[in-house]
Design a protein that fits this description.
By secondary structure, this protein is mostly helical. It has a single domain, classed as Up-down Bundle (Sodium/glucose cotransporter), CATH 1.20.1730.10. It contains 23 helices and no strands. Helix 3 packs across helix 13 and helix 11 packs across helix 19. It is globular and about 70 Å long.
Length: 540
């Protein structure tokens, strides 16, 4: 326990010390410095921050747990993201940087009207508080408890441990976002990202060495032969947890919005030193995404191979922690725990920073204090971070963990993703779309999705199952695609009836060098080929 504690504290303090060393001379008193890292982020910092902003214990524990219960098809949440990231690097990032944006709602305010931007910012903030922030904290607390056995060690109940860990990790994560701004967040993300990648790959490697009696290839062959159905990446079986068909419907909408227009993601690119560094960072992160199956689903299948007789489906959240304790030596336990905590901190503080940016630019600056000074913006951003952190730490322990938490997270996000993406894309591609159509879609679209998926799910499912001649439940991602198409259809129809009165021309207000990376298209093609290759090789 002593060695574990020392290695945990050592890595955690190392990350804090390096982050402080790189930011201690920066003055967090201006908009760009606090919210966009002074527009000085380089490719590797952007790549590391993107990975840790997205990946956390909800992936390590949640997706591995889902792979334990189902198949590696759940890796689609990661592998298909690489394709969307190519789109971000080649199309969306150059466009947003050329306009000199800080937030996505800022674009919507300029394209439509101020109210549209305020509605969009409010939706972003609502989804962060309701889904991302509390789920990240809950997964982190559950993982740390499972790894260290804190309930037994301190004689506390599970509820007490979860409350203590949620508030402890949440408070620590808040400090980076509140006092360090985007640059401190991005640097800590990068260091934690290295640790995350090393630790994430080490767990399945050590497990396969154990299974293969010293030879990891033999271990992989054994798991593959004995658990062959688990390796079907298409998930194309009756009642699939993630049917192959959703990759061409709602998954497309989900990934394009999250990776091409989601504030927490695109803000890293907006803080780039120049377009070249932004594109390079996004595509490096896309390459790392291709390692996703090795880190976030393969351990779940290995855990099923080793522990299927002792862990039931209801114990899916214990699958990954149990594997970690079984294969990691004691002296690496603290390092791994530090990596898990770092992953939680990175996602949590990244979302807090983005939330503060949204609030200050699109609500505080647009409605409450349009003439506020840059110091006042920073002060308001810190106050917003504190308020959201307290709300998330209060909500997290109350979330029901009886089903897939990762699925819960995606369902909540899907409520807003489809309508928001429709409004953004049509704003870019069709000048006749009006502000009224945009506002109606941002409000009505989420209501429609909520009614279909949450309120009247049973009768809606019964009707669709009858029409399709199946007894399988229609996946919520199909509903995401349906709502997206309905919203697009409404906006186009309204544009024909009552088109926008004025024509919006995107400004050329770039604040960085816009010379693109000369290898961007080639690297993008490589990522696309590798992603498709994963499905060709693992389809059954």
């Amino acid at each position: 326990m002593f060695v574990t504690t020392v290695s945990f504290l050592g890595f955690t303090l190392l990350v804090a010390a390096i982050s402080y060393a790189y930011t201690r001379r920066d003055r967090m008193t201006t908009w760009d410095a606090y919210f966009l890292g002074g527009r000085s982020l380089t490719a590797w910092v952007i790549a590391g921050s993107l990975m840790l902003t997205n990946l956390s214990t909800e992936h390590l524990i949640g997706l591995n747990g889902d792979a334990f219960n189902h198949t590696i098809a759940v890796t689609a949440w990661e592998t298909t993201a690489a394709l969307a990231m190519v789109g971000t690097a080649l199309y969306f990032m150059p466009r947003f940087l050329r306009m000199g944006l800080s937030t996505i709602p800022e674009y919507l305010s300029a394209r439509y009207d101020r109210t549209t931007g305020v509605i969009a910012a409010t939706i972003f903030l609502f989804s962060y508080v309701l889904a991302i922030l509390p789920v990240v904290l809950l997964f982190g607390a559950s993982g740390i408890d499972s790894l260290f056995g804190l309930q037994e060690a301190f004689g506390l109940s599970q509820s007490q441990v979860i409350w203590l860990l949620v508030w402890g990790v949440g408070t620590l994560g808040s400090l980076y976002a509140i006092f360090g701004g985007l640059k401190a967040v991005a640097i800590s993300d990068t260091i934690n990202g290295v640790g995350f990648l090393v630790a994430g790959l080490l767990v399945p490697l050590l497990a396969l060495i154990q299974i293969g009696n010293g030879n990891p290839w033999d271990g992989l062959a054994t798991v593959y032969v004995e658990q062959r159905p688990k390796f079907d990446i298409t998930g194309d079986e009756p009642g699939s947890f993630l049917p192959f068909g959703v990759l061409f419907t709602g998954m497309v909408v989900n990934q394009i919005f999250f990776w091409c227009a989601g504030q927490t993601i695109i803000q890293r690119g907006l803080g780039a030193r120049n377009l070249k560094e932004g594109q390079k960072g996004m595509l490096i992160a896309a390459c790392f995404k291709l390692l996703g199956p090795l880190v976030i689903v393969l351990p779940g299948v290995i855990a099923y191979h080793l522990f299927k007789d002792t862990l039931g489906p209801e114990d899916y959240l214990l699958a990954y922690p149990t594997l970690v304790k079984a294969v990691l030596p004691d002296w690496l336990g603290g390092f791994f725990a530090a990596v898990m905590v770092g992953a939680v901190l990175s996602t949590f503080n990244s979302v807090l920073n983005s939330s503060a940016t949204l609030f200050c630019r699109d609500i505080y600056g647009a409605v409450m204090r349009p003439q506020a000074s840059q110091r006042e913006f920073v002060k308001a951003g810190r106050a917003c971070s504190i308020a959201l952190a307290l709300a998330a730490m209060t909500i997290a322990p109350m979330i029901d963990t009886s089903g897939s938490l990762y699925n819960y997270l995606q369902r909540i996000n899907a409520t807003f993703f489809g309508p928001m993406l429709a409004v953004i894309l049509l704003g870019m591609l069709y000048r006749r779309v009006s502000a009224f159509a945009a506002k109606a879609s941002l409000v009505g679209g989420p209501v429609l999705f909520f009614l279909l998926v949450f309120t009247f799910d049973d009768p809606v499912q019964a009707i669709l199952q009858g029409l399709l001649g199946t007894q399988d439940e229609v996946h919520f991602l199909h509903f995401l695609a349906i709502v997206f198409v309905v919203v697009v259809g409404f906006m186009l129809l309204y544009a024909r009836i009552k088109p926008a009165s004025g024509i919006y021309d995107e400004p050329d207000a770039a604040q960085v060098d816009m010379t693109p990376w000369r290898h961007a298209k080639a690297m993008g093609a490589f990522v696309c080929v590798c992603t498709i290759g994963c499905y060709v090789l693992l389809a059954q």
